[in-house]
Amino acid sequence: MENFEFESPTHFAFGRESEKRTGELVKAFGGTRVLLHFGGGSIKRTGVYGKVVASLEAAGVWFVPLGGVKPNPREALVREGIGLARREKIDFILAVGGGSVVDSAKAIACGALHDGDFRDFTFGKDCKNPPVVKSALPIGVVLTIAAAGSEGSCNCVISLEPDNLKRTITGDRLRPRFAVMNPEFTFTLPPYQTACGLVDIFAHVVERYFTPSRDVRATDELCEAVMRTVVAESAAVMKDPSDYSARANIMWAGTLAHNNVCGVGRVQDWSSHGIEHELSALYDCAHGAGLAVVMPAWMEYVMPSGVSRFARFAEKVWGVAPGDEASMAREGLSRYRAWLKSIGMPATFAELGAKEEDIPLLARNLGLKDGQTLGSFRKLATADVEAIFRLCV
């Protein structure tokens, strides 16, 4: 097991009517002047916005709203939020929505206290040594989508304009102080959005599970349990979107998948996410849908570098009977692809709306310089990334 440091300070308020505690929690964590950050009109149509506002007002918390977050959150709104936070002397940011809203809130929280430009912290300026955020406004979350896990993570991903790039900002100061998680808020999600969330949760574990590290049984077992849970609950939630038990297990799995409890003690990979970010940056596709296309292609490409690991994945997650490791590994990948198809996810560039002729551009946009590589399970150069993209075609 590798040496590690792990900090997970987020207070989770989970379950029915937990949103009633929002105002109380903001005050408990020092918020007096709040930026209420959200996306489009869905939280107003479903009543979530009204419930959160009522809780803030009941607690006597002053707030100013800033809506408009889009999937693959945009740099322009982050800059607007930074300006608003400074003008209004905001001391707390409350994100109401899914991962895109939370990520946008984190970037604002970082930028509001930084004398320079928030881009100074974007992973990608230096692929090997990304700058770490040392100070940020405190953040709270009312979660409405189980997917990104940003409610418990130390990262955010922002789409930079007009570059058509997605870049990560990281630092434990970006971990939310609290997260309110009512699974009922996810009942109204369309099936496609639910499926994209399932893929994203599963992928967050895969990026940690496929590792060159050895003798990390504790986190191996955790990873496998979370992946099995996502697969098992997916059928129930796709059949009945109002299945509270399925929604609750998926929502908590999303947090466990990305607050790094499944990742400590092991070298992590993250190449599939890096590759997919270029797809969603260029084509504005859903992140989960992009991962459904990229991750099986990545597995196919890197499998020869770690057949035993893929055989374990096949047995522990997909129930493949022990036997020849190469055959087990291929069968596990086949069952993973079948699961993605069963929940309505795309499998190819064409289904995603991506173009084969853009592959060289997509690979270059990762910004790998001479000698630099992506990932750790198998280190990928730009040519390898192009090959993986071609497997997606």
Concise structural overview:
It contains 15 helices and eight strands. By secondary structure, it is of the alpha/beta class.
Stated plainly, the CATH topology of the largest domain is called Dehydroquinate synthase-like, alpha domain
The major pleated sheet works out as:
6 strands, parallel
Low-confidence stretches: none
Total number of β-strand segments?
8
Distance between the termini: 37 Å
Provide the spatial order of strands within the biggest beta sheet: 1-8-5-4-2-3
Overview of the structural elements:
- With 393 residues, the chain is of the alpha/beta class.
- It has 15 helices and 8 strands.
- A 6-stranded parallel β-sheet has the order 1-8-5-4-2-3, with helices on both faces. A two-stranded antiparallel ribbon has the order 6-7.
- A hairpin with a 4-residue loop joins strand 6 and strand 7.
- Helix 10 packs antiparallel against helix 12 and helix 10 packs across helix 15.
